[in-house]
From TrEMBL:
Family matches, as Pfam families: 7TMR-DISM_7TM
InterPro entries: 7TMR_DISM_rcpt_extracell_dom1, HisK_dim/P_dom, HisK_dim/P_sf
Membrane keyword on record: yes
Keyword annotations of the record: Membrane, Transmembrane, Transmembrane helix
Catalytic activity: ATP + protein L-histidine = ADP + protein N-phospho-L-histidine
Domain named 7TM-DISM receptor extracellular: residues: 2-190
Protein name, UniProt field: histidine kinase
Gene3D superfamilies: 1.10.287.130
Domain of life: Bacteria
Annotated organism of origin: SAR86 cluster bacterium
Record-level Gene Ontology MF annotations: phosphorelay sensor kinase activity
UniProt key word Transmembrane: yes
Length: 336
């Protein structure tokens, strides 16, 4: 047994150092809470080995510290505070209840309330993990597996202690369960950290993309400002020429048609510049618009590029419908 305890403390110390190392790198609180849990469990075992005058008080105190770290780790690892408000409140109430029980035990000097099978007291953790996993949080499965193994092996020890079973009493099932659980949960935290890192990378990509769009919008706005005045002047010249020809050459339809086509091309260029300018502007207020208008607006932006690359862009209207939202933002989504 002494040899196994030496292995247990050595292995647990490695787990503690591993989690401290990753906490220093990532600042993920789950690592820190799990370090507190492992250290408090080691202190509980040391307390059970070393007899002291106030042994029972310290034993119960250590047990309460273990419970607090279990609750804190559970809340942080499963993300209860962010995504599961009611479950987070339930765990908070459980923490308060355990603390009140401890205070009451200290006042009356009776600690029998904590002399219960710990496998039963901690079994709700498995149900909690199963529920969070059912809601789509993948790392919760490691939480369920880790605590499931630890609680199951602790249950064997509880049966031997409280029910008089004689199932290999010389084997420290509780400590074995804790070792297995420490490996699984340490791996689980690393999986969660990987998910957080990937989410941050995706957020950074979105921010970079948004910055590029903003820069492109500013560039298009500058270009449109520089082009708008020359186009307006050309349009004015065409109108003056049309007036001049009508007054002096009323029968020359060819020249008039050519001028009208030139005016249409100028209108098209002006509208295209307007489309580019409005495309990246954020709408302050929601408005109603047709879905086909969004598709048509996007085509006005990229139509020539698609045709140049022999890409067919076809809008099929089965049943057009109106949308009440931000048109420019939706157009950017369709374009992307």
């Amino acid at each position: 047994m002494e040899l196994f305890l030496g292995f247990y403390f050595g292995f647990t110390l490695m787990i503690v150092l591993y989690n401290l190392h990753w906490y220093a790198i990532t600042k993920e609180k789950s690592y820190l809470y799990y370090v507190g849990l492992r250290v408090s469990l080691m202190l509980t075992i040391v307390q059970s080995i070393l007899a002291t005058p106030l042994e029972e008080f310290y034993q119960v105190l250590n047990i309460n510290v273990v419970f607090m770290f279990v609750f804190a780790f559970t809340k942080e690892f499963l993300g209860l505070r962010k995504s599961f408000y009611r479950l987070n409140a339930f765990v908070n109430y459980a923490m308060i209840f355990v603390l009140l029980c401890f205070v009451y035990s200290v006042i009356v000097g009776n600690y029998e309330i904590f002399d219960k099978p710990y496998s039963i007291m901690t079994s709700p953790l498995i149900l909690l993990g199963c529920f969070v996993y059912s809601q789509g949080y993948a790392p919760a499965k490691y939480y369920v597996i880790g605590w499931g193994i630890a609680i199951s092996l602790t249950g064997i020890n509880d049966l031997n202690e409280y029910r008089g079973f004689d199932f290999y009493p010389e084997i420290p099932f509780t400590l074995i369960g804790q070792l297995i659980e420490s490996v699984i949960l340490s791996y689980a935290i690393s999986v969660k950290t990987g998910l957080i890192i990937r989410e941050k990378e995706e957020q950074e990509k979105v921010l970079i993309h948004q910055a590029k769009l903003a820069s492109m919008g500013q560039m298009l706005e500058n270009i449109s400002h520089q082009w708008r005045q020359p186009l307006n002047r050309i349009a004015t010249y065409i109108i003056n020429v049309q007036v001049y020809i009508r007054e002096r050459y009323n029968g020359d339809e060819y020249v008039m048609d050519a001028l009208e086509q030139s005016q249409l091309q100028l209108d098209y260029m002006s509208n295209t510049i307007e489309d580019f300018t409005n495309f990246n502007e954020k709408s302050e207020d929601e408005s109603g618009f047709l879905a086909s208008d969004v598709a048509a607006g996007v085509y006005n932006i990229v139509g020539l590029t698609l045709e140049k690359n022999e890409i067919v862009f076809e809008i099929i209207e089965h049943s057009d419908f109106s949308i009440y939202s931000y048109q420019s933002e939706l157009s950017q989504v369709v374009l992307n």
